[in-house]
Design goal:
Layout (H helix, E strand, L loop, with lengths): L4 H4 L4 H13 L2 H8 L3 H15 L4 E4 L2 E4 L1 H21 L12 E7 L1 H18 L3 E7 L5 H6 L5 E4 L8 E9 L1 E5 L1 H4 L7 H6 L1 E5 L8 H8 L5 E6 L5 H7 L3 E5 H11 L2 E4 L7 E8 L6 H13 L8
Parallel strand pairs: 3-4, 3-5, 8-9, 8-10
Antiparallel strand pairs: 1-2, 5-12, 6-12, 7-10, 7-11
Length: 310
């Protein structure tokens, strides 16, 4: 597409920066603080944006300002344009991990926090002592909003969603295994389908339901299991399994760690369950940021899939 120099010359790039801040913060006051200008100046920018796009863009509501459909449609192309301009016009600074002073906010799944994060932290303590991590429990239904609002730098987990302004890198595929106290349940690996259905289960679920991947697989065979307990906290499940005659189905990486630490047994699942892809997810505006690129490379290098426990 040829460049319309005459009309583009009338466009103030600062308005697009203001639009991104307003959409991110949903508040004139916070958007002004984000950019470093006064509230009256940001209000003036909003008025100019409304005139430019011939739309209200943001509408006041009891719980803040809500974007109009027109504003929602503009978010992705505006952010992409700003990211490309930033990458082209603002050369990245050099990054020295040995002397850097930086905090990374990372959304992680519970299983990643138990397996990958300890190795990552040990590496940082030795090689980048000024780099610190702020971890948050990942919510795959909100992760894109968190990245878009710049509340997270990176997501690590079973993340398959994304838009054109998000980047994703697959780290490894994980399988599911059964974890149980062989003495309490009276079963030795490998667990049979009959015992898998007979024994009570502990199910990790963020949504609070009692239906998981195993139930879908069992239903295809005309079978059902009994879920004795549901929880949102996968890291407490091995301790429950250690002291109660129940079994759980969980990713092989944390299962292997807890089997060794707590003296638990691991078995392949007697029903076929799909593999899950563990990935990195980030906003494209950080794609060429030297510090962000360094962290992604370190995580990728350290995220070698552990072997299954026995």
């Amino acid at each position: 597409m040829p460049i319309d120099h005459a009309n583009l010359g009338r466009l103030d790039l600062n308005l697009l920066v203001a639009f991104d801040a307003l959409i991110t913060e949903r508040s004139v006051t916070r958007a002004a603080a984000r950019i470093g200008i006064g509230q009256p100046a940001m209000s003036h920018n909003l008025a100019r944006l409304r005139a430019l796009f011939r739309d209200e863009l943001l509408i006041r509501a009891p719980n803040g300002m809500h974007p109009t459909p027109r504003a929602l449609a503009l978010i992705e192309p505006v952010q992409l344009a700003l990211a490309q301009i930033q990458a082209t016009m603002l050369p990245g600074e050099t990054f020295d991990p040995a002397t850097a002073d930086r905090v990374f906010r990372i959304g992680v799944s519970y299983s990643v926090e138990a397996t990958l994060v300890p190795t990552l932290l040990a590496y940082l303590c030795e090689n980048a002592p000024g780099v610190r991590l702020q971890l948050r429990s990942i919510d795959r239904f909100k992760i894109l909003d968190e990245l878009d609002a710049d509340r997270l730098d990176l997501g690590i987990g079973a993340l398959t969603e994304g838009q054109t302004h998000h980047k994703r890198r697959r780290l490894y595929n994980t399988t599911f295994v059964c974890l149980f106290n062989a003495e309490l349940v009276g079963v030795s690996p490998p667990i049979s389908l009959e015992d898998y259905v007979r024994l009570p289960h502990v199910l990790t679920t963020l949504l609070g339901d009692t239906h998981g991947l195993a139930d879908i697989a069992l239903a295809k065979l005309g079978l059902k299991r009994t879920v004795a307990l549901t929880t949102q906290h996968i890291l407490t499940v091995p301790f429950i399994v250690q002291r109660a005659p129940v079994i759980t189905t969980m990713p092989s990486e944390p299962a292997g760690f807890f089997a060794e630490a707590l003296g638990l047994a691991i078995s392949p699942t007697p029903v076929e369950l799909p593999e899950t892809s563990i990935s990195l997810l980030w906003h494209t505006s950080y794609d060429r940021d030297p510090a962000h690129l360094w962290l992604r490379q370190i995580v990728t290098r350290l995220a070698v899939k552990p072997t299954k426990g026995s």
